[in-house]
């Protein structure tokens, strides 16, 4: 049987975008037509709940459950908002970009349906600032959808009218955190908000708001068109649907593939990415963005979904993997990540703001051959304290995931930096200069 | 109430609190930074982490931030848990990564919350070995010093300045470990409440610049309880001194009045006490030298001279003062007799005060405390320019507009202390605040509706609101449609509120406005509401003076000119600020002897034959009655040098020296200490009967001891005078209060009027206030917040004010000149403080642009205005909010003594126009 790839089946592989005509010809906006006759908002909600759709931004939260927290009915606050999180700033992750550049109308349709299901009449696409091509193509798609009457007018046979706006981010990684994103949309500093209250109750402009990852929203038209049973069957595991997997690093054929959810990392790495490049050996991979823990050889046969990876191993994240090979220093690899996290900390809570730069400086001293055993203890301390609940949001705990797992799997390499007084992967000996 | 279990002990707490304030309220030490009792929780600093357990079987628990967790019944937490303790120490370690450890040279040292919290967590050893980040500091004007390198990024400053106080020009910039708190560029912090940053900042980023100029450590200060003399609100302050110099003013918590915050005039206006213009010697000036200060005749015994003149007097005129203590005014009244006591205010103000007094005495609506104002859920301000006349009340109203949206917050089940969530839910929604006036300030941005009009039109709006609420109250003929609709909206908002508040002021000198405000309050009362009425008065003790009674200044002038008296005693009053120069000149000319008892040199003192140096507030004991009618005691902080004495003491001495044998049994001559003054005051009027209850008397002792003004750690007692004497001089005695000018005395819980410095073991900063409260943020333990002297006498409205003025009509030739108060510039005492002087704007004339064009004036030009016998150089401001046909004159020092409102022919009065370089 042909493998179904509902999200990417029609995407042009030459980088051009699908036009509205192509989109409609292949069944686009058909779900919207169905609303009039067959489906009320509750039906759409039920379909999504039954499909087992889980958030594709990395959290894997059940979309139907999330929607269940939105106040419904005539007494619910108005307006409600649906926000597409297109702030794809996770290093190594490019799946949303593939979708938005290749098939912008899919996002518009997904947002209309989500809006309809939640009676949320206004939508925002919060787009990573650097995604200029996505911005161009989405702008055009939104304009076309207005012309065609999918936006700005009551949907055929209903009284529901949806407006959609595109907002290009001014930058910063933290904007991908849904509450920081809401603050940024409101024109405030992009600092996360404490939960509770959750955005579903108090979100954008204080109103009920659902923030969904772009990829998640692309799934909704297909669920509405084909039903939840079909959707569940797409996957190999209990989590429904397909997933866009990606690989970067020293592999033969880096790229992305839409595969059944629950495909193993080994299959993606060996069958699709063609295995490691010549002359390098696999040491580990970050399964989905840099705020996930390393997986090593022993974990490669785990189904890559939201429920099969044990918490002590890690989590799926965005499923766009970054591969660490034996020609790359794991300490330098992690240092690169921690510098990013330290720079992208919003500066709101103490452990993240002060802890991450300290960690980055310690790792720098490892790379420069100036680290000591005490530094290893300090790194351990940070991995212990920068934990969920201790910090204000997930950024610092995310930053600790690769560090903690690197300290677990590659501790020898850290210790060799101390005993050799230089980086074993560096040809240069330790430099005698003051660390700045 | 709820029960929570902390380290296996049960505590009863209010479940509306968070765990942090619940713990602090029980004296449990949980360190914190970003939380503030007046500003709620945001969960930024992560310092207040405690271990929370699901139930009694849960052994592992999880760390939670106590400021962000509700004190729900059955909550089980541990503060002493090793993991929680280690985490809290780590938070300090992180904060210390970039903190400069410059405590020995930091102004905050010794009263630094960061020091306290560091000690509390036990973090001692530094493991961070890399360079620290550094910042450039900013010059923020005369009040505040900025040292960003000390910053621990608790975000309190911006939360206070922007969210709480409505400021715009302080912000947070940058991100990650380089966030910066400051202005966009160097410059004066604009907000009128910027001084609170000094207390809000938990470390030494924002410090008091005036204090820096004569810095001393907290433990070396000699302090006593003060009442702010710079407006009529009566904010409680602590005044602190060392070596004869008043060093600073800090906030003194009073739950009913100022709470945690002061305005900048109150905090930085104190340096008049140290002014070189202080009168320190009693002098006699021969007649030919009158008016020329400094040329005095050496009379060996000035006081004897004065007493002689009093004895020889053929009638004495005693002129009291709204800035002198109640006791000083009573002393003067007693010396000269009630018939010869004049209030020292002009006819118009005299009339306004008696109207206001009648409204409170005979009406059914009580006055409002600042706390009441904060809690009110709909406010209508008529005429008063709060930001300039009673700033702390404006700050209270910025909180009151949050009251109505809070109902929605409650529906969302968001706890009120969850500040960030509350603000996210509320967004820009604000409760009703209606501002009617004739001068726009930034405060108007927070108003539901504003109305800029001449005082008579503001009064008409008020009468119309009253008429809409209660049909019985007089209606307003020929009201224009715009005002009519506004009146309807205001009436509706006030009628729907639970705690409506009406505020009116005396700044515009409009009797009609005050009467209209009373009608509104009474109309609401008639509808079964529980409104409150707040009347902003001109000076610190205006209400006390009004209650005391007496005639106006004009009557005093008449007494001298008609020859019924020949001797004048002026108590702490510069008459040239109150009447035109010619009249005052004639008054002194015609008096045989004029005596002035005052603290600062001014034109009146310069015209006196005898000048007796009066103590300022921080050098004397006394009582002020605030605009609310709240009597509050202030205490002497230090003994100053020279002949300086409290005014009531000079008057008492005069009384003794001049009394006839037969009245030695009574009268001011029999007063020997301040308690005598208080007892005598209590007898003067029935409303003063409880004046003795506001604070403990001089004989009050705890364990047989007085209460020290100095800390246990006050240093240098024996060495400060070692160049003069080898012996330790005895401390000055204090007959007048239960306080001592020493380090020795009772240390322990005190009645709240006797608490000068908030200080507790482990709590050296102002945050120690927590340890004086049963519930954090609530009243002090056994608080004595002063005594309200006037409560409603009636339960029903006896009658309505019916004198609805006619609509204001601009004329062709003449303009109505209206007074514009200035927070920096209109208060006599703070105007003599250097930091305030730096903030005083040049005198200006505001007028509507169309009037400006009519007069051919250029915006920003400078004109000379000849008016009431003097010429003033004024900057021209075009201001669209100025009602057409009126002009506003800023009441700054160069313009004092004018009598406004007044009609003026501007075409004739404007003499020259010069183009000024654009500002």
Overall average pLDDT of chain A: 95
Sequence of secondary-structure elements of chain A: HHHHEHHEHEHEHHEEHEEHHHHH
CATH topology grouping of the domain at 283-350 and 544-693 in chain B: Rossmann fold
Mean pLDDT of chain B: 94
Task: Give the uncertain stretches of chain B in residue-range form.
Answer: none
Spatial order of the strands forming the largest sheet of chain A? 3-2-1-4
- The order of strands across the largest sheet of chain B is 34-29-33-30-32-31-35
Tell me what portion of residues of chain B adopts beta-strand conformation.
15-25%
Beta strand % of chain A: 5-15%
Description:
The complex is a heterodimer of chains A (about 425) and B (about 900). In chain A, a hairpin with a 6-residue loop joins strand 5 (about 240-250) and strand 6. In chain A, about 40% of the residues lie in helices and about 10% in strands. Chain A contains 16 helices and eight strands. Chain A has three domains: about 20-235, Rossmann fold (3-Layer(aba) Sandwich), CATH 3.40.50.11540; about 240-325, Roll (Ubiquitin-like (UB roll)); about 330-420, NADH-ubiquinone oxidoreductase 51kDa subunit, iron-sulphur binding domain (de novo design (two linked rop proteins), Up-down Bundle). Chain A has about 425 residues and is α/β, with parallel strands linked by helices. Chain A has helices spanning about 20-25, 30-35, 40-50, 65-70, 95-100, 105-120, 130-150, 180-185, 215-225, 230-235, 265-270, 330-345, 350-365, 375-385, 395-410, 410-420; strands spanning about 80-85, 120-125, 165-170, 210-215, 240-250, 255-260, 280-285, 320-325. Chain B is α/β, with parallel strands linked by helices and about 900 residues long. Among the domains of chain B are: about 1-80, Ubiquitin-like (UB roll); about 285-350 and about 545-695, Rossmann fold (3-Layer(aba) Sandwich); about 365-535, Dimethylsulfoxide Reductase, domain 2; about 815-915, Barwin-like endoglucanases (Beta Barrel). Helix content of chain B is about 25%, strand content about 15%. Chain B is built from 27 helices and 35 strands. In chain B, strands 34-29-33-30-32-31-35 form a seven-stranded mixed sheet. The radius of gyration of chain B is 28 Å and the shape is globular. The chains are: A alpha/beta (about 425), B alpha/beta (about 900).
